[in-house]
Amino acid sequence: MKETLRQIVSFTMALLVLFSTMSFTVDMHYCGDQLVDFSFFKTAENCAMKASSSKSTGETSIMEMEMDCCTDLEIVLEGQDDLKISFDQFTFEQQIFISTFYYTYVNLFETVDKNLIFFKEYSPPLLIRDIQILDQTFLI
Questions:
Q1: Helix or strand (DSSP H, E) at 11
Q2: How far is 86 from 47, CA to CA, in rounded Å?
Q3: Are 20 and 4 in contact (CB under 8 A)?
Q4: Secondary structure, 3-state, 34-91
Q5: Integer distance in angstroms from the first to the last C-alpha of the chain?
Q6: pLDDT category, 10, cuts 50, 70, 90?
Q7: CA nearest to 43, candidates 29, 23, 55, 60
Q8: Lower Cβ count inside 10 Å, N or C end of the chain?
Q9: What is the distance of C-alpha 21 from the center of its chain?
Q10: What is the rounded distance in angstroms from the CA atom of residue 38 to the CA atom of residue 27?
Q11: Is the pLDDT reported for residue 68 higher than 80?
Q12: What is the DSSP pairing of strand 70-77 with strand 34-39?
């Protein structure tokens, strides 16, 4: 259970780092109020209603100006660029704190054998008098 939970948390953290550093652009082309084309990786294609200026007279005709209802929208999401932190930027006190925290965290989960008998090597004390009989203390 712990191993599965650790893998799930590791995977979600990796996805979080991936999506926080990734930047992308969304291009959208509208004709009036309708979305005609959108693209994630390249520019959106224009429709045939896009107005063009005539080069011979230098003017745009009235017909073409009426059809110029198209708009292009570009949404840019920038990712982070400064994620790499080198270890030499830490002060000496921070390095000591990190190393002691790591040492105590690793040793926190060290398993201890529950069948340890610490007094196995020692002999019992010499019995001079039987104290229970002298005090007349008996377990019933």
A1: helix 2-21
A2: 50
A3: no
A4: EEEEEECCCCCCCCCCCCCCCCCCCCCCHHHHHCCCEEEEEEEECCCCCCCCCHHHCC
A5: 47
A6: very high
A7: 29
A8: C
A9: 10
A10: 5
A11: no
A12: unpaired
Say if residues 45 and 38 touch (Cβ distance below 8 Å): no
**Minimum mean pLDDT among 31-35, 80-84, 123-127: which range?**
80-84
From the list 32, 33, 66, 70, the residue with the least C-alpha distance to 50 is: 70
- Residue type, position 39, single letter: S
Cα–Cα distance between 140 and 122 in angstroms, integer?
Answer: 30
> Residues 86-118: pLDDT tens digits?
666 788 898 899 999 999 888 787 676 677 788
Q: Among residues 11, 18, 72, 77, which one has the least CA distance to residue 45?
A: 72
Token pair for residue 115?
């069948």
